[in-house]
Every structure is written in structure tokens, then in C-alpha cells.
Backbone:
């Protein structure tokens, strides 16, 4: 047989060695010389150890720290810890026990005591583990029952109308009530806890046969005719038949119980019920109880053919036999506890969570196991799902995230968190500085705006956002699905989403966009680009003062003809350079035609000296070619003037300069308004 | 020198340790191991460097070993030192150090003599 493994944690080599020597006959030992090392070993292979012997005073991390980590990671639930320490102060011992230590061995070590304590502790834990697994299996069985239940019910609920949903819950609550009262009162029926919970569950199925009944009869607002009633009565047999015909689960105890209830929940104690006219305790107790519950809820609920009857009146009607004959013991239960019943039902509708009692039963069943009512198998399945999701998330190379407003916590997929250098869980993300630095400005506004625009019908939206990823600003396409509650009106309860790196395609796209508005030779804006930017500038800052200057190279054709096209290009490049150097970077420079250029600039008081300076800069020799330009300028004096209008005026001024003998500039005034220019600017 | 004589020389309780560890072989093994333990050097260094936490741990380790080996005399003085250092009282710690040093030297010298005899 394999030896149990023990981890000895003590900073003194001698102490470890003494303990190891004492235990090595029976156990396999492993040693750690400080708390940090112990934690590292446990992290790697916590499941292989049956016991930890732990010193308190140690460098790195002390014994208390180790206990804390073992609590946090819940190893302490599976691995018992015996403290081995020279510490004898009661406060220290107390603290160790509080942190989950099982036992204490105080130095000096006595070989036989160490042996006994270690032995006992390991045995005790082995037993406990076995018990936990037994309980877990039972809980699993319960879960399987209820999932089967949900299978059947959800199948049926589709066929049913709204009122029955509540009816089912009420019947379950009342059945629960009677079962517990009954087992307190008498042990005639000797119901086990397991049987009780089966009956409660199965009670929800009592009316499944109704799906085969014509809806016209089911929802008829008025008394049924004899024929209609005969049809209606068939539902108990039909329901039972449906269960009997189940191909797989026929022998499941839950299905068997449900069969009894379906078939006989309209029988009466005196044999006057249907379908079989069973009498007294020939009717299974499950069906007797559900029959009573069904009657009570039918009385106290509103139906298409009747109003709701108050609790007291309903109880009175039942007790006086107006709804048929019931088991006298059950009637006693009812009359003795009618207030409790009323309370139970009121509580249920208040909470809106009718299965609370079941949940409590489950919790009881799991004893005090800290796993919170979920069996190990379920946890394993959840783990598997999580692993699967993480795998796919990592493969997709997307940053996936979810946010829930209830917890105000942002969860990022492990791959994404790693990519961003953020933790996987971020509390109060809107206040998180790291997140803020990473996402930069504006994301909150965009997000809130788009969330506000989303709705139950269109919960999805996407936007592009640039943010910092490992020190690099990159473009991401962020796709989000807002999560709205089912309530009326719906409320925003969170979101899920992903961010996909589109940096490379986005950069390419922007490059292309940039290219489209630039003149390839000079790198200045082209005509369309200039117009767009100017119009945007005017729109955004209408109160600023602007001027637009147009110019072309005097006798450029000659330069081309005499010196060749390459030289012509050189002249154009020269001009572009001069232009950009003589204006502010915020001003707009463009080449709008072969040798035609445009400058759009902002100024404060007088445009004349500014234009004069620029004009002077532009003229001069390029190699042996004496470069001059003719320029026309228009001040944008009136608000509301359009680009088209001032461009036209600047062009008129340019023609005026040309007509006046070139190599000069003029600022538009009204005397030029009749100059005709063949501008095709639109 | 027998192991029992060694215990008398260093002021320890041989019967106690034999009762707990159950074998002379084991007792001898751990007694010899005591010579290899660096805790005393660490204690001196930590006190010099005024590192109270480290000094406390070293004293504590010595105390623990003494308890396990039933080195009563050194155990008592190192225990007193441990308690002084636990409270962070360096002054008292330094005052108690000479006694610990004397007991330690006595212990080491007894074990060394014993060791010389068995090799």
C-alpha cells in the first residue's frame, strides 16, 4: 500500500530531521524550511499530502501566514494541520486553532506522542472525506431529480397558461406544509425525509394531464357542461399515462410518486372521487395531500369562472366537507395550523422565490460542508466548463469581459487580463486608476451613451476605441451586449463583451484615408482634403477670424517648357516647403491644382502684413528660375460665409493680381466683385 | 566520553531525551547535528546588525533544539533571551547574551569532546 505523505514545515533542520526520523517508518515525509516554501509545495501538489506538521516561528512566512493561505485556498478543508512549535503562549495556540489547526504538539517531541497524534488525525480526516463523498452523492441524486423535474415541467409549461405557474408553486408549498405537519402528528405513514422531498417535487406535476385537454374547456369562463366535465376529468388518467409511458425514467422514484399523484389527486377519502373511486388509505398519502392542496389553492385563487375566496372561508369550506371528503388527520392538521399555512403562503408570494424551502432542505442535506449545496460532481462540471471557456477565449485572441452592476465588478478573461496586464477581477472599475490609464479618456462617455441607447430588443452595439496594451496604443473594436433584466420596465443589470485587436487593419485604413486627402507630390492636402478641413474648422470655431489665400506660380508653363518637368516638380516642392514654413502648424496648406495653391489661416487684427510676409517668402530664385507668384486673398469677414464664397472671392483677387501684371498680391474688396473667374469649385 | 557523560558536561537531561527519542543512536545523531546548526552565528550577527526579528527567530530556533535535545542549561538561557527579543527589548537581549554564549560554548565543547571520542 502506498504510504501517506506528510509535509514537515520547520526552519530548524534538526527539528525537521527529528520529526522525519520519528515518522519515516510509516509515512513518506517531505520537508520545507519556511512558510513560503511550504506554500509553494502545497500549490504544486496540495492533494498528495495527508497532513502538514507546521512550526510557527519561521523566516519568510511564518506558520500563521501558511494557515491563512491554506484557509484562503481551502486546502485546510482537506489537509489537517498539526502545529509543532516551542510556542506555549495560550494566545498563540488559540490563534492557530482559530485558523484551522487540528492539533498541537509542543516541544520537546516525544516519539510515541507524535506518532499517535499524526495517526489519529489522518484517520479522522480519511473518515470525514468518506462521509463528505457520501453526502455529495446524495445531493447529486437530488440534483438529478430536480433536473429531471425541470425537463418534464419545462416541456409542459409551454402548453400551459400563465395562472398555472403560480398554482403549481402554491400546491408545492401547501403539500410541503401538510407533509411536515402530518409527520409531526402521526407516524402512521412513516415518511422518510427523502420521500417527503420526492412528494413535494412530484406535486408540481399533478396537472400535467391537462395539456391533453382542449383549451376551450380548460379556460371556459363559466360552468362546464356534463360532457365537458367528463372530458376535463380525464386529465388525471392522461397525466398518469404520460408518466407511465416515459421511455427512460419510468422506474425513477420521483416518476413513480408523480404517477400516484397525477392519477389519484381527484380521489376522495369516502370513495366518491375519480377516476378509480379509491377509498381511505387505498389512496396513496401523496395523492391525498395534493388533492387537499389542489382544492385549497383552487378556492383561494381567481379563475376565469370565479373570484378568489379568502383563506378563512376556504378553510371553513374544506373542513365542513363542501369540497368532498378528506382524511380526518389531514383536516386536523389544517384546522390546527391554518394560520401557519396562511403565513407560509404569504411569505412565499412576498419572496417570489417559491423554492426557498427546497433550497433550505438542500442546504441541510449538505450538512455543514462549505461547498454551499453543490455536489463535487457539479463543481467538476463547472470547472470543466470554465476550462473550456478559457481555452476558447484564449484561442480567439480576444479580450473578453463581463460586468455586473449588482457586484460592481468587471471580470476579464484570463487571456485578456494577461494581455492587458490587469487582474482578472476588478472591483468598482469606473474608479480604477489602472483601467483609466489603460483606456484613456472618453471611454466612459461612449460606453454610457451607447448603453443608454441600447434596449432589450437591440442590446448589442460596437465601437472602435484606442487603448493602451502593454505600453502600446492599439485600436480595438469593442463589441458589447447589454444585459437587461426581464422585469418591467427592464433594467440594465450588466454587460458582456469582447475587444478585438483591429490595430493593423485600422492603421492601414487610416493610411489610405490619409492618402486620399493628400497630394502625393508635395504631401500637402489636395483640394478635397483642404475643403473638408476648412469647412470643419469654420464649423467648429465660427467666432475666429480667417483668411483664405490662393496663388499660382507665374509663368509656370515656361519653367516646365524650358527646364523640364522634373524641374517643375522641384519648384512645386520648393513652394510647398516655403508655405509650410511661413504659416503656423494649425493653418491649412494645400495644392489645389497643377501650380495652384491655397492657404487658410487664422489671424487677429490685420491680414496685410501676414500675407505680405508669406508672399515674400514664396518669391525668390529656384536655381536660375526667378520664382514669383500671383496671389489673391479674401478675409472671411462675415459669419455665415461659406468656403465656396470666400474661395470664389480669393480667386477673383488672384485674377486681379494677374491682370495687374503678376508677382503681386491683392486682398479682395468689393471693387473686384464683377471679375469673372472660371472656377469649377463646387 | 560517553553520551551520558557529555550530557552531564553540557548540563542536559539524558534520561528525558532517551525517553522521548527511544534510541541512543538517534540521540547521538541529533546531538552531533547540533554542531552543524548555524543558528548561534546568525543570532550574533543579527544582534550586531540590530535586526531584532532575525535575532528572535535564531534564539527561538536554538531554544527549540535545546528542548528537543533536553539541553536544559542552554535551553533556559536561550529561552530567556527569546522572550526578551520577542518583546523587541534589544538592551535586555544584549544583557542576556553573555550567559547564552557561555552555555553555548560549554555545550559545543562537550559535544566536540564526545565526538572526538567516538571517531
Residues:
Amino acid at each position: 500500500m502506498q504510504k501517506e505523505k506528510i509535509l514537515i514545515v520547520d526552519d530548524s533542520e534538526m527539528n525537521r530531521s527529528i520529526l522525519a526520523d520519528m515518522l519515516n517508518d510509516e509515512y513518506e515525509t517531505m520537508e520545507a524550511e519556511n512558510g513560503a516554501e511550504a506554500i509553494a509545495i502545497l500549490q504544486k501538489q496540495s492533494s498528495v499530502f495527508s497532513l502538514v506538521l507546521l512550526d510557527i516561528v519561521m523566516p519568510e512566512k511564518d506558520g500563521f501566514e501558511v494557515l491563512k493561505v491554506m484557509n484562503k485556498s481551502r486546502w485546510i478543508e482537506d489537509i489537517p494541520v498539526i502545529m509543532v512549535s516551542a510556542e506555549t503562549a495560550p494566545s498563540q495556540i488559540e490563534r492557530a486553532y482559530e485558523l484551522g489547526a487540528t492539533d498541537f504538539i509542543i516541544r520537546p517531541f516525544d516519539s510515541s506522542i507524535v506518532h499517535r497524534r499524526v495517526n489519529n488525525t489522518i484517520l479522522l480526516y480519511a473518515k470525514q472525506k468518506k462521509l463528505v463523498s457520501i453526502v455529495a452523492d446524495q445531493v447529486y441524486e437530488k440534483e438529478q431529480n430536480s433536473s429531471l423535474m425541470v425537463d418534464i415541467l419545462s416541456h409542459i409549461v409551454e402548453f400551459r397558461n400563465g395562472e398555472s405557474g403560480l398554482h403549481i408553486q402554491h400546491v408545492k408549498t401547501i403539500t410541503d406544509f401538510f407533509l411536515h405537519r402530518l409527520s409531526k402528528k402521526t407516524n402512521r405513514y412513516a415518511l422518510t425525509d427523502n420521500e417527503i422531498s420526492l412528494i413535494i417535487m412530484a406535486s408540481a406535476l399533478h396537472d400535467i394531464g391537462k395539456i391533453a385537454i382542449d383549451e376551450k374547456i380548460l379556460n371556459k369562463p363559466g360552468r362546464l357542461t356534463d360532457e365537458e366535465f367528463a372530458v376535463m376529468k380525464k386529465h388525471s388518467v392522461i397525466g398518469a399515462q404520460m408518466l407511465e409511458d416515459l421511455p427512460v425514467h419510468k422506474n425513477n422514484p420521483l416518476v413513480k410518486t408523480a404517477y400516484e399523484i397525477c392519477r389519484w389527486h381527484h380521489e376522495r377519502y369516502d370513495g366518491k372521487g375519480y377516476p378509480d373511486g379509491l377509498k381511505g388509505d387505498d389512496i396513496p398519502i401523496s395523492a391525498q395531500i395534493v388533492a387537499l392542496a389542489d382544492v385549497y389553492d383552487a378556492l383561494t385563487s381567481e379563475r376565469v369562472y370565479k373570484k378568489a375566496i379568502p383563506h378563512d372561508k376556504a378553510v371553513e369550506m374544506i373542513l365542513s366537507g363542501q369540497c368532498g371528503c378528506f382524511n380526518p388527520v389531514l383536516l386536523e392538521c389544517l384546522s390546527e395550523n391554518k394560520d401557519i399555512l396562511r403565513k407560509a403562503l404569504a411569505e412565499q408570494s412576498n419572496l417570489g422565490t417559491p423554492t426557498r424551502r427546497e433550497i433550505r432542505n438542500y442546504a441541510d442535506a449538505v450538512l455543514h460542508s462549505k461547498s454551499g449545496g453543490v455536489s463535487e460532481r457539479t463543481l467538476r462540471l463547472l470547472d470543466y466548463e470554465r476550462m473550456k471557456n478559457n481555452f476558447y477565449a484564449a484561442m480567439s485572441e480576444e479580450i473578453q469581459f463581463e460586468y455586473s452592476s449588482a457586484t460592481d465588478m468587471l471580470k476579464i478573461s484570463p487571456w485578456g487580463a494577461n494581455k492587458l496586464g490587469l487582474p482578472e477581477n476588478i472591483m468598482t472599475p469606473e474608479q480604477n486608476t489602472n483601467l483609466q490609464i489603460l483606456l484613456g479618456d472618453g471611454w466612459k462617455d461612449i460606453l454610457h451613451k451607447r448603453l443608454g441607447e441600447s434596449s432589450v430588443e437591440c442590446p448589442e452595439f460596437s465601437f472602435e476605441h484606442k487603448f493602451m496594451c502593454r505600453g502600446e496604443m492599439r485600436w480595438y473594436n469593442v463589441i458589447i451586449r447589454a444585459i437587461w433584466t426581464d422585469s418591467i420596465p427592464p433594467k440594465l443589470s450588466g454587460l458582456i463583451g469582447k475587444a478585438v485587436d483591429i490595430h493593423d487593419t485600422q492603421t492601414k485604413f487610416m493610411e489610405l484615408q490619409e492618402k486620399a486627402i493628400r497630394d502625393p507630390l508635395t504631401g500637402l492636402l489636395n483640394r478635397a482634403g483642404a475643403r473638408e478641413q476648412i469647412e470643419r474648422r469654420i464649423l467648429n470655431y465660427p467666432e475666429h477670424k480667417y483668411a483664405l489665400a490662393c496663388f499660382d506660380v507665374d509663368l509656370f508653363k515656361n519653367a516646365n517648357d524650358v527646364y523640364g518637368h522634373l524641374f517643375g516638380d522641384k519648384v512645386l516642392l520648393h513652394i510647398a516647403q516655403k508655405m509650410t514654413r511661413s504659416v503656423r502648424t494649425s493653418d491649412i496648406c494645400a495644392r489645389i491644382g497643377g501650380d495652384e495653391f491655397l492657404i487658410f489661416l487664422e489671424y487677429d487684427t490685420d491680414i496685410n502684413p501676414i500675407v505680405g510676409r508669406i508672399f515674400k517668402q514664396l518669391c525668390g530664385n529656384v536655381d536660375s528660375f526667378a520664382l514669383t507668384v500671383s496671389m489673391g486673398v479674401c478675409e472671411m469677414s462675415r459669419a455665415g460665409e461659406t468656403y465656396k464664397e470666400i474661395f470664389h472671392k480669393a480667386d477673383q483677387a488672384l485674377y486681379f493680381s494677374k491682370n495687374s501684371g503678376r508677382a503681386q498680391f491683392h486682398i479682395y474688396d468689393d471693387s473686384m466683385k464683377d471679375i469673372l473667374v472660371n472656377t469649377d469649385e463646387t | 566520553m560517553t553520551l551520558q557523560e557529555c550530557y552531564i558536561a553540557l548540563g542536559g537531561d539524558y534520561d528525558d531525551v532517551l525517553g522521548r527519542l527511544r534510541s541512543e543512536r538517534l540521540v547521538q545523531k541529533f546531538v552531533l547535528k547540533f554542531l552543524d546548526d548555524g543558528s548561534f552565528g546568525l543570532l550574533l550577527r543579527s544582534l550586531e546588525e540590530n535586526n531584532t526579528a532575525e535575532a528572535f527567530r535564531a534564539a527561538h530556533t536554538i531554544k527549540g533544539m535545546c528542548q528537543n535535545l533536553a539541553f536544559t542549561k542552554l535551553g533556559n538561557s536561550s529561552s530567556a533571551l527569546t522572550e526578551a527579543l520577542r518583546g523587541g527589548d534589544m538592551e535586555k537581549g544584549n544583557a542576556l547574551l553573555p550567559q547564552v554564549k557561555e552555555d553555548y560554548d560549554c555545550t559545543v565543547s562537550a559535544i566536540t569532546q564526545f565526538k572526538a571520542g567516538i571517531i
Remarks:
- Residues 66 and 75 of chain B are 5 Å apart (CA to CA).
- Chain B is about 85% helix and 0% strand.
- Residues 3-115 of chain B form a domain with the Four Helix Bundle (Hemerythrin (Met), subunit A) fold (CATH 1.20.120.160).
- The first helix of chain B runs from residue 3 to 10.
